[in-house]
Amino acid sequence: MSYLSLARKYRPREFDEIVGQAHIATTLKNAITMDMAAHAYLFAGARGVGKTSTARILAKSLNCEKGPTPKPCHKCASCVEITRGVSMDVIEIDGASNRGIDEIRNLKENIKFASVHGKFRIYIIDEVHMLTPEAFNALLKTLEEPPLHVKFIFATTQPHKMPPTIISRCQRFDFRKISTKDTVKKLKEIKAKEKLDVADEAMFLMARAADGSLRDAEVILDQLLSFTKGKIGSGDVVKVLGLMEQGVLFELADCVLNNEKDKILKTIDALVNGGKDPVFVASCLIEHFRNIMAVKIAKDKGKAFVAVSEEDYHKLREQGLGLTLDDILYITYSLSAAIDFMKKTPLSRVPLEITLIKLSEKKRLASIKEILDRLSGIEEALKNKTFEAPVASPVIASATLVRRSPGEGGKSAEAISNVDSRQASPRNLGPSNDKVTSTAVPKEEIAVEKDILLFQKVKDSWAKILNFVKSRKMSVGTFLAEGALLKVNNNTLAVGFGKHNLLHRESLEVSANKKFVEEAIKNITGEDMRLIFESVEAQIDSEPDLADAPENEIEDDIPPRANKIEPIVESAVDIFDAKIVDIRKGSGKGK
After folding, report:
1. Distance from the Cα of residue 539 to its chain's centroid
2. In b/e form, how buried is each residue of 191-208, taking b as 16+ CB within 10 angstroms?
3. pLDDT digit string (tens) for 202-221?
4. CA 530, CA 449: separation in Å to the nearest integer?
């Protein structure tokens, strides 16, 4: 006798045996009991969740000699023929290979004939969404008013591809994916009946790999029985299906949490050399940290949200003790970004390794709350006119600014701060031993940081702004590209043009063009800014490098508009009415 696969051998024979679809089984049983069976049903859902099996059970219930009954006898000629798939009254049609209008015309001709054994002639059309639009149109009238002895049962994995006119003529039932718990329960039943030697962890892995499809889980079990010749362990499932072992995921997570960089590299190397795709490894890690989050949030009810064994569940709880929700979110976002990067490069293991190494350094990163608290403290100190702020490090190029005392022509001055072109970005605010102290800061100086930050924001987005303008008004974008960003003062952005670009400047000063550029800036940066255009002297392409010059040989009167000066520093010079007395290249340490 030929071998019968487990999926066919243990296919449900009546409504009470259907796994994971109690809502559908109950409705159909009640409809049959109350003699309210519809003329057309639509069963929609993922693969392997019981659509076709339910259709056959419904057909048996309607055509059983003792029926219609919610419990077919399985002994009468009708029940036996339907179970064996040879019934003349139950016609199963593959919608993928019988999708044309001619096949539907033949169906319409055949429905005129009465049933042979049962009370109804039942048509089961699988993957019905594959029918052509013409075939669906030909079916419409028959589907709405079929003969009394005809029932239609449609099954599909993609109901969204079906015409609404067809769906509206059917009672629709949506089949759910079968939970891991229910899948494992069914596998344990098969294990007991077949007297198999299968580890519980192996069944969990099979259920997870099946992804809600009971048929897939049964097929996997069949495959593993052939591979192992009897005894199935979790390692066999991992080996045959190419899965990630839970132990490896816990190990990698521990490496990240304990800052074990060398172990991270060794583990990733072993996985990649063992045939694991880095994208797959990253996806499994995301799922692992998601499980930690679910267990952490749900606490004692967490078992309902994770598909793991009892032992792994307790490990998840223990591993989550040292993590906050912010930590978990940061890790998952970082791994998601790494997956996007991996798909764009042939060296896919490199982004994964770098990301995990970076995550292992998470203790050195300030949380969002800490940064906001620090910024709030700075703001409060400014309001109270006592300010102590960290200086960004390392410094690439710095300039010492001095405030000219009133009435002294700038000869005597009070040192204010070391301004770094990179200080404008809040992400460069970090711990440092070097601090800048000012004991009397006027209110107008509070706006300095805002203007500098706004200028840097526009500068960073300038390429996008130009592309946006060019895509809608090419001439305006071309003219604007000839200008140079100068400064931001009181929410007004200054763009400079040389003498040879006066025509460009005049064109941009036309009210409609100017307004359009301002709207483009707001659209890209989110900032509502005014725009002005200024004439500037021709820029100097190069100038002597002062980095190596002796300190006493540096000119005291360096022009504030020297081309090597960063725009942020220029803006600060204008606002503070200061002059630059020193320009140096930093040594990599804050000053």
Report:
1. 46
2. beeeebebbebbbbbbbb
3. 888 899 889 899 999 999 99
4. 18
H helix intervals, 242-324: 246-257, 261-273, 278-298, 310-320
Asked if 389 contacts 449 with a C-beta cutoff of 8 angstroms, the reply is no
Residue 258 sits at the vertex; the CA angle it makes with 256 and 260, to the nearest 5 degrees, is 70
> From the CB of residue 63, how many other CB atoms can be counted at a distance below 10 Å?
28
Peptide bond into 68 cis (omega under 30): yes
**What is the Cα gyration radius of the chain?**
37
So what's the pLDDT on residue 590? 43
Burial bucket for residue 569 (CB in 10 Å: 0-12, 13-18, 19+): buried
Residue 387's H or E segment, with its range, is: strand 387-390
* Residue 580: strand pairing partners: 401
What contacts 422, CB < 8 A, 6 or more positions away?
392, 395, 396, 428
In percent, the amount of the chain with pLDDT more than 90 equals 32
Degrees, nearest 5: CA angle 236-238-244 = 160
Q: What are phi and psi of 403, to 5 degrees?
A: -90, 130
Compute CA distances 33 → 37, 58, 69, 527, 585, whole Å: 9, 12, 6, 67, 89
The single-letter code of the amino acid at 19 is: V
Q: If you search the block for the tokens 């895509």, which residue do you land on? A: 471
Helix (H) / strand (E) containing 382: helix 368-383
Confidence at 491, pLDDT banded by 50, 70, 90: confident
State the greatest distance between any 2 C-alpha atoms of the chain, in Å, as a whole number. Answer: 114
8 A C-beta contact, residue 418 and residue 537? no
Phi, psi of 549 (to 5 degrees): -75, 145
CB 250 within 8 A of CB 315: yes
Query: Whats the size of the chain, residue-wise?
Result: 591
Torsion of CA 230, 235, 236, 237, to 10 degrees: 120
Lookup: tokens for 504: 């460009």
Burial of 138 (0-12, 13-18, 19+ CB in 10 A): buried
What is the rounded average pLDDT for all residues in the chain? 79
Strands 484-489, 492-497: pairing is antiparallel
Is the pLDDT reported for residue 408 higher than 80?
A: no
Domains of the chain by range and CATH?
A: 6-174 (3.40.50.300), 180-241 (1.10.8.60), 246-364 (1.20.272.10), 366-591 (3.30.300.180)
Task: Determine the Cα–Cα distance for residues 321 and 325; give it in Å rounded to an integer.
Answer: 11
The two tokens of residue 183 are: 């899948």
Query: Is the whole model's pTM more than 0.90, yes or no?
Result: no
